[in-house]
Automatic annotation (TrEMBL):
Residues 12-323 form the Enoyl reductase (ER) domain. Keywords: NADP, Oxidoreductase. This is NADPH:quinone reductase. GO terms for cellular component: cytosol. Pfam families: ADH_N, ADH_zinc_N. Belongs to the zinc-containing alcohol dehydrogenase family. Quinone oxidoreductase subfamily. It comes from Beggiatoa leptomitoformis. SUPFAM superfamilies: GroES-like, NAD(P)-binding Rossmann-fold domains. It is an enzyme of class 1 (oxidoreductase). GO terms for molecular function: mRNA 3'-UTR AU-rich region binding; NADPH binding; quinone reductase (NADPH) activity. It catalyses: 2 a quinone + NADPH + H(+) = 2 a 1,4-benzosemiquinone + NADP(+). The keyword Zinc-finger does not apply.
Amino acid sequence: MTVNAIQIHQTGGIDVLRWEKIEIGEPAAHQIRIRHTAIGLNYIDVYFRMGLYKPAAYPFIPGMEAAGVVEAVGAAVTDLHVGDRVAYGATLGAYTEARVIDAERVVKIPDGISDQTAAAMMLKGMTAQYLLRQTYPVKAGDTILFHAIAGGVGLIACQWAKKLGVTVIGTVGSAEKAELAKAYGCDYPIIYTKENFVTRVKELTNGKGVPVVYDSVGQDTFMQSLDCLQPMGTIVSFGQSSGSVPPLDIGILSAKGSLFLTRPTLMSYTASRQQLLTCTDDLFAVVQSGDVKIDVNQIFSLKDAGKAHAALETRQTTGSTVLLP
């Protein structure tokens, strides 16, 4: 069948996002076909477009998360049926009206969660889950530093951390984003364009620093993030919106207090079906309970994906953004 999709034939700016017709086939034994109803926008989409992350081949369809309705199932698929509402959050190829995908990579959307909410929360929500519950499991009484706290992952992580009894320090780029972060429970938003976040973190922690920094900004914040940590603290570098972190002399980690460094990805944390279900079950539970609210603050047409990328890259977005086929 023929559908419309955004394809990338070469790396570059938003002009390489091309709206084209593609052919998709019938699902194989362990696959399903989904008709997308909403597609999530994430910074990893920009990384793939620019060539920072490499697809298996060109042209390729970007996008990592979406929600939709099952249109067809393969012969060996028994737990999903035509008409089921499903979503996924760590599989390349989402910027399309419909697609074929391995059944084990999707999960059913629970009642009470809309398709747009599901599309907006899968990758970002699962990222918040593994960061806070697995990479560095936070506990009540901890104080953490979370960069870009007004972004999609940040606002989810902020609410989740507060539910777990954590004090949240977050960096933002403007007074408006500081107010937004506060509304979602951030105890101490720091406007990094106006004050030195290292100095402020030390003030807020009586000179001790924090046990963990979650850093998706990369180049602009990484070295200063190390200075915010307690001895034997952990820096979780899970993105690079400002550019890649330069090569590092690991001796710096010992010099600054026997620090731990990890560069995790959602794909590693959801590699098996059981890992995926553990992550999504936890996520769906906190959303259904009302402890974590998912706000879709921007909506674009899928064919206008370039406009969405431009808004994301110039930090004009807050919370989650979805693309509608």
